[in-house]
C-alpha cells in the first residue's frame, strides 16, 4: 500500500521515500543502489557508524540471555550495569538513573520529576515562606513551584510536556491549546545579537535577562530547562561561552532546579562526553538520549542528583514513589548496546579526536565564508550549522517559501550525501568516527550544493 509508512515532520503528498537497504560505517545503501554518506548521523544519534562490530556483538550476546523484561519493580543485570556506569561517568554527583525510550520521554520524566520533587521535598520555597512537606496541600499546586523557564527557540521533544517547553513556531503553534505555558527566556544567539550587545558582553547580557525572570518568578519555578551550549532544532544556535555556568549559579541563588537536556549534545558531540563538562556544571537533572546506545536502539535516561532522589524515599503507604514509568524502559538489548558504545568511548581516542576533526571540517568549509548567501558557519565539535541568508550584510533570511535549505540538501543527495536542514540552516553532523577523507568529501559536496542552489541567477529564478 502506497504511503503505509507515515513519516514524522514530513509532507507526505508527493513524497518519494528514501529507503535504506543496509549500512556500513558512515555510509548508507539504498534499495535502488545509491551509496550515501550519513551526514546527519541518522538524526544526530549515530556515534560509531553503522554495524560497529563491538556493538553488534554486545547486542547478539544479550539476545542469547533475555531481550526484554520490565523495570517496574524488577530489572536485568545488563540494565543494572548500565545504570551504574552512567552514574559513574556523568558529571558531579548525578547518580540515580531513570530509563525511558527516547529523548522526548526523558524530558517528560524530568518535568514530572522536578514537579513531584517540590511537592515532596522537606522544604519548599513559596514566595518568601518556607513550607515543610507536611504543610504542603493541594493548594501548593497553584501557589508553589509548578512552572518552568525555557529559552526562546527551545526544542525539547514532541510529547505534550516537552512540546510545551518548545519555542519554535512551526513545531508548536498548532498545538498551543493543549499545552502549558512556560516562563520564556531569551534565545542566547551568538550570530544575531540584540542592539548594543557585543561578543564580549553577550554572556552577561543574556544572564541578566534570565536573572530578571528568576527574580520575578523563582517562587513559582520548579526548574530552568535548557539545551546546554547549543540549541539544536532552533538552527544550531550556539550560546556565549560561560552562560551555562552563570545559569547554574543563578539557579542555586534563586532556589530553582536546573534541568539540562543533553539528548542532542551528549556522548561526545561537542568534544566532551557531556556538554555540561565544557563549563564544569552539574545539573540537578540530566536528560540523555540519541547517542546513548550509539544510535543502535531506542533508549533514553533521566539522571538525578541525590537531593532529588531522596525526596521520593518513604514508606509505600505515603505514596511518594515517582509516578511515572515506561514498558520498554531499560530494555536489556538497548542497555547492552549502550554499554558497548560507552566502552568504545572510554577505550579509544574518539572523544579526543572530535576537536581535531571539527577543526578540520570547519577548515574544509571555509570557502563558504566568502559566499554572499552564507551568513554564518557555527557549532560546537561535530555539530555544525551553515545558515543561508538573502543578504549577508543585514543577515536577512530568505523567504521561507523558497525552501533554500531543503534545496541544498536535495542537491547534496545527488552528490552522495544525506543531509536534513533546519529551515535555511544546513546541518552538518557526521558520525564521530568519520575519517578525514570522508569529512573532506562531505565538505566538498556541501560547498558544491550551496554554490549551485545559491548561485545568484538560480535564487532569482525561484
UniProtKB/TrEMBL annotation:
Gene3D superfamilies in the record: Aspartate Aminotransferase, domain 1 (3.90.1150.10), Type I PLP-dependent aspartate aminotransferase-like (Major domain) (3.40.640.10)
Residues that coordinate or bind pyridoxal 5'-phosphate: 103-104, 261, 326-327
Q: Which cofactor does it need?
A: pyridoxal 5'-phosphate
Quick one: which pathway?
Cofactor biosynthesis; biotin biosynthesis; 7,8-diaminononanoate from 8-amino-7-oxononanoate (SAM route): step 1/1
Q: Name one GO cellular component term.
A: cytoplasm
A molecular function (GO) held by this record is: adenosylmethionine-8-amino-7-oxononanoate transaminase activity
What catalytic activity is recorded? (8S)-8-amino-7-oxononanoate + S-adenosyl-L-methionine = S-adenosyl-4-methylsulfanyl-2-oxobutanoate + (7R,8S)-7,8-diammoniononanoate
Q: Which GO terms describe its biological process?
A: biotin biosynthetic process
Q: Where in the cell is it found?
A: Cytoplasm
Tell me its EC number(s), please. Answer: 2.6.1.62
Q: What does this protein do?
A: Catalyzes the transfer of the alpha-amino group from S-adenosyl-L-methionine (SAM) to 7-keto-8-aminopelargonic acid (KAPA) to form 7,8-diaminopelargonic acid (DAPA). It is the only aminotransferase known to utilize SAM as an amino donor.
Q: How does it assemble?
A: Homodimer.
Record-given protein name = Adenosylmethionine-8-amino-7-oxononanoate aminotransferase
**Species this protein is from:** Rubripirellula amarantea
Supply the source organism's classification.
Bacteria, Pseudomonadati, Planctomycetota, Planctomycetia, Pirellulales
Q: Which gene encodes it?
A: bioK
Amino acid at each position: 500500500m502506497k504511503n503505509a509508512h507515515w513519516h514524522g515532520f514530513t509532507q507526505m503528498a508527493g513524497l518519494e521515500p528514501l529507503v535504506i537497504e543496509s549500512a556500513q560505517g558512515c555510509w548508507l545503501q539504498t534499495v535502488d543502489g545509491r551509496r550515501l554518506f550519513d551526514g546527519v548521523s541518522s538524526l544526530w544519534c549515530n556515534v560509531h557508524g553503522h554495524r560497529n562490530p563491538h556493538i553488534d556483538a554486545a547486542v547478539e550476546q544479550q539476545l542469547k540471555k533475555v531481550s526484554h523484561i520490565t523495570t517496574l519493580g524488577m530489572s536485568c543485570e545488563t540494565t543494572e550495569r548500565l545504570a551504574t556506569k552512567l552514574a559513574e561517568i556523568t558529571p558531579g554527583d548525578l547518580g540515580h538513573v531513570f530509563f525511558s525510550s527516547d529523548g522526548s520521554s526523558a524530558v517528560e520524566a524530568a518535568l514530572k520529576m522536578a514537579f513531584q520533587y517540590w511537592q515532596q521535598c522537606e522544604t519548599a520555597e513559596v514566595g518568601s515562606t518556607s513550607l515543610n512537606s507536611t504543610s504542603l496541600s493541594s493548594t501548593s499546586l497553584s501557589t508553589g513551584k509548578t512552572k518552568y523557564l525555557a529559552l526562546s527557540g527551545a526544542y525539547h521533544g514532541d510529547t505534550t510536556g516537552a512540546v510545551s517547553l518548545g519555542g519554535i513556531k512551526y513545531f508548536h503553534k498548532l498545538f498551543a491549546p493543549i499545552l502549558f505555558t512556560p516562563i520564556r527566556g531569551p534565545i542566547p544567539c551568538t550570530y544575531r545579537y540584540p542592539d548594543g550587545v557585543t561578543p564580549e558582553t553577550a554572556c552577561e547580557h543574556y544572564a541578566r535577562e534570565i536573572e530578571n525572570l528568576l527574580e520575578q518568578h523563582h517562587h513559582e519555578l520548579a526548574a530552568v530547562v535548557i539545551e546546554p551550549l547549543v540549541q539544536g532544532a532552533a538552527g544550531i544556535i550556539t550560546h556565549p561561552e560561560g552562560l551555562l555556568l552563570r545559569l547554574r549559579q543563578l539557579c542555586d541563588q534563586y532556589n530553582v532546579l536546573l534541568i539540562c537536556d543533553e539528548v542532542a549534545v551528549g556522548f561526545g558531540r561537542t568534544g566532551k562526553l557531556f556538554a555540561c563538562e565544557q563549563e564544569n556544571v552539574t545539573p540537578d537533572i540530566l536528560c540523555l538520549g540519541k547517542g546513548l546506545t550509539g544510535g543502535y536502539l531506542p533508549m533514553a535516561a533521566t539522571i538525578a542528583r541525590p537531593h532529588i532522589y531522596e525526596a521520593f524515599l518513604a514508606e509505600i503507604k505515603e505514596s511518594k514513589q515517582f509516578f511515572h514509568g515506561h514498558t520498554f524502559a531499560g530494555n536489556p538489548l538497548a542497555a547492552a548496546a549502550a554499554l558497548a558504545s560507552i566502552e568504545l568511548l572510554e577505550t579509544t581516542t574518539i572523544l579526543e579526536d572530535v576537536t581535531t576533526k571539527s577543526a578540520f571540517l570547519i577548515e574544509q568549509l571555509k570557502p563558504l565564508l566568502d559566499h554572499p548567501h552564507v551568513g554564518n558557519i557555527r557549532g560546537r565539535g561535530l555539530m555544525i550549522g551553515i545558515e543561508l541568508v538573502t543578504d549577508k550584510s543585514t543577515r536577512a533570511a530568505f523567504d521561507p517559501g523558497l525552501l533554500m535549505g531543503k534545496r541544498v540538501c536535495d542537491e547534496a543527495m545527488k552528490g552522495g550525501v544525506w543531509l536534513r536542514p533546519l529551515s535555511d540552516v544546513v546541518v552538518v553532523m557526521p558520525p564521530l568516527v568519520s575519517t578525514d577523507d570522508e569529512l573532506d568529501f562531505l565538505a566538498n559536496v556541501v560547498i558544491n550544493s550551496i554554490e549551485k542552489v545559491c548561485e545568484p541567477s538560480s535564487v532569482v529564478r525561484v
